[in-house]
Prior knowledge:
Blueprint: H1 3-16, H2 22-29, E1 34-37, H3 71-83, E2 89-94, H4 116-125, E3 128-132, H5 152-176, E4 180-184, E5 189-190, H6 198-212, E6 221-226, E7 237-238, H7 242-252, E8 256-260, H8 274-280, E9 284-288, E10 290-292, E11 294-298, H9 304-315, E12 322-326, H10 335-354, H11 358-366, H12 370-380, H13 385-395, H14 403-408
Parallel strand pairs: 1-2, 1-12, 2-3, 4-6, 6-8, 8-9, 9-12
Antiparallel strand pairs: 5-7, 10-11
Helix pairs in contact: 1-13, 3-10, 5-6, 9-10, 11-12
The structure holds L-rhamnitol (RNT) and zinc ion.
Residues 39, 44, 132, 185, 226, 228, 260, 287, 295, 327 line the site of L-rhamnitol.
Amino acid sequence: MTTIKRNYEVAREIYRTYGVDTDLVIEKIKMIPLSIHCWQLDDIRGFEGKKYDLSGGIAVTGEYPKINYSLDAYRNDMAKILKLIPGKKKLNLHAIYLDAGNEMVDRDQIKPEHFKSWVTFAKENNIGIDFNPTCFSHPMSQQGQTLSSSDDSIRNFWINHIKQSRKIGEYFGKELGIRCITNIWIPDGSKEVPVDQLGPRKRLEQSLDEIFSDQVNPLYNMDALESKLFGIGTESYVVGSHEFYTNYVAKKGHSMICLDAGHFHPTETISQKITAYLALQDELLIHVSRPVRWDSDHVVLFDDETKAIMHEIVRSDALDRVHLALDFFDGSINRFVATVLGARNALKSLLFAMLEPTRLLKELESTGKTTERLVLIEELKTLPFGFIWDKLCDDYGINPKDFLGEIHTIRK
Length: 412
Ligand code: RNT
Ligand code: ZN
């Protein structure tokens, strides 16, 4: 018997004494899709005919040598990345990762045909695709306004971009038989508090109404709206704030909220917001990220907040209603490794949460045994969780202990 199997048997027995069936948990976690973001690998450069500088508050910091990827080389690395992450995966694509050959296709002109080769890639790699319109790093967003702009030509440009994006999402869903989530994030806001705070928000509402007036089959595409508290250059005012989108979604009754772990005040945590949405909304998208003092998008760790996010989902029995997508970019370490490591840490956190004897804890809670509840929660932290994780990796032919060995075989 291999060490991994032997260790697993021991761990399985220990978890069983807490009423946890580890075999079942492993089978269950294999069914939960994790959306791997396309942008960590190439600093969100994409494959548009023309490469624009990053803007809209999107910044990648770090001096680790980067690869100037061709689409083929990029896909090669992405395929390798997918193989190093256990479980079910989706690829979270941004619109600027289109494949239009040598043609320069502007954002308002993108069509499903420009993403045909991504469908092939997804089929080859047995994954679904999620989508994001790219409303930043473009001359039309240079004034810091897109959907909320008072200039109709700018506003319409971005409305059209997002309308096209939703069609592409629908196309992915239909072609792959896996529903696509199209997540809309815009950078609109300002450095100082504007005198007119209401005007841009009313224009954003109108733009969204116009976008969603297009019928897109909800079986194939579902939309999410991502808020933010502040960004670089939008320190004082963000049009698409948390309150704005929460009210928009509640009022209009379509699309879901996207909670990004880095988009709130540093003392707020999204783990403590999840159930407020689950109580009143059908679905929720989470951008699993790691803020350090601000929305710094550090690589996701197996840390307390990531575990708390997963605990809230598991304890609410909402694994089918909450969608997990990664969102970080670190240019200070190997970007390939960053993607794999962050994805694994998100999954590890999920596995950790799923191995909790939730029913037992809830029972203690409902019978007022809060001392026992706290003791048990602390006890669970030192169970041989790592052995279960190793088994999950092993089921996918991934050697969890040879991670660095794997990465030394890949290009920088
Ligand atoms: C930006 C948002 C958004 C982006 C990606 C690249 O603050 O978090 O999700 O990170 O679209
Ligand atoms: Zn995000």
